[in-house]
Write a structure and sequence with these properties.
The chain has 450 residues and is an alpha+beta fold. The protein contains ten helices and 33 strands.
Amino acid sequence: LTFCTCHLLTCFAGTNNSAFSIIPCRFRIAAMLVPSSLFVAIVYLLWAMDVRASPITTASNTISRRADNYVRVPLYRREPSMPRLAQAVRSEEEDNDNTVMKTIRRRPKDLPLKDFTDAQYYGPFSIGSPPQTFQVIFDTGSSNVWIPGDACRSVACLIHHKFTPSSSSSFVQDGTPFEIQYGSGALEGALGVDTVAFGHHTAPVHNFTFAMSTVERGLSWIVARFDGIVGLGFDEISVDKLPTLFGALAAEKSLPEPVISFFFGYEKTAKASQMILGGVDKDLVEPGHDFHWIDITVPGYWQIDVHGIDIGDFDACKSKKCPAIVDTGTSLVVGPPEEVREINRAIGATLNSGGAASFPSCEGLDDLPTLDVTISGRTFPLTPKEYVLKVTALGQTQCLSGFAGLETPQGLWILGDVFMRRYYTAFDYGNKQVGFARARANPPPAAEAT
C-alpha cells in the first residue's frame, strides 16, 4: 500500500446547488494494488485509530453557562498531521488553462469556499426530540446544515453517527432532494425539518430545515472526525437558498446577542477551545487588548477588506485593499499563488516533493520576520511561532509554512485557523461585522470549556 500527499484540489459543478471547494486530500492510496475489501478494512482502521470523534457526552459536561448567560460549546482539537497539512496548490501557470478555474471566475458569488478535510476543530450539535447528538464542523465559510441520515449506506455513513427521523417526535419529512459537490467528493440526500440545537439541547431553533445525506462519495468523508457540517454563513451562499441557522437564531432571539465567537487553542491551550454563543468572553482576550470590529463588505461569506499583508519589504496587497473571508473551516492562511510565493520566499519556505511549502530545518525559525496583517487601521502581527506548523509523522518532525496559494474568485484571501488561533474571533450577525482581539496566551481555568 502506498501513501502519498497530493496537491490542493479545486472543483466546481455549474449549478446553484454546487460548491467551489478548497479541499486538500488527506492522502492517496494506491487502491489498484489492494483488493477492495482490504482497502475498506484499512480505511476503517485508520479511522478508528486517528479519526474517530471524541465520545459524545451529555449536556452536563459539554455545555456551560455563567452569569453572562452566554452558552459555551467545547471544541475538540485534532492535532495536525503531515498528510493533512502537507498540501500546496498547482502553480498559477498550470491553472491558466484550467477550465474549472475559468468557470469559477465567471460564477464567483454563489460558491462557498471550503476546506473540510483539513478542519481541526469540531464540536457537539443536536437534532430532534429527544436530541440526537453529532460532532460537526461549525463553519463560517458555508451556510447549510447537513448530517448523515439513517438511509445512507455509504462507507462514511457506516462509521459515523446517523440521524434517525423515526426516533424524533418533532421531525417533519420534507423529502426535497439535496445535492452538493465538493472537491473531495459528492454529497446527496434529502431535506427534513426538526428542532436543532447546540451541544445536547441548548439555544434550540425550531422547525429548521436541514439535509440528511443518503450518499457520501469521497475518502475525505470516511476519514473525517466530524459527522456533518453546520454552516454559519449568510443567505447568499446557502445551497438551494435554504434558511440559514445564524438567521434563524437571530429571528428567534435565542441568544443575548446574535453573536458567535471562536477561541481556537494551540496545543497547550487546546482544552480552552470553544465556541461562545451570544457574545464574547473578555476572559479569553489578552489583558490590555480589546476587540477591533470590521464591517462585512459583501454578505455571503464573512468577507472584509484587508488593507495590508506585509512581510519585510513585500506588500501582498500592493497598497490596495485585499478582499478576504474569515473562515473557521480553513486551517491555513490562503491567498493568490503569486503573492503567497513571495511570502514563502521571504520566510525561506520552498515547495517540497509533497507539494507543501516547507523549511529545510526547524532550527532557527524564531528569527524569521513577522507578517503584519493590517485591517481598518489596526495591525495584527503573526510571528514565526504562529505561522510555522510543526508536524510529526513516523517519528520525524518537519516544519511547514502556514501560508498556501490558491486561485480563488476575485483573488480572495482566506484567514483560517493560523490567523484565528492568534486572534479570538467574533461574528456579529446583527451588525454584519467581524471582530478580532488578541487571544489570551494562558486562559484561566474559568475560561475553559467544561
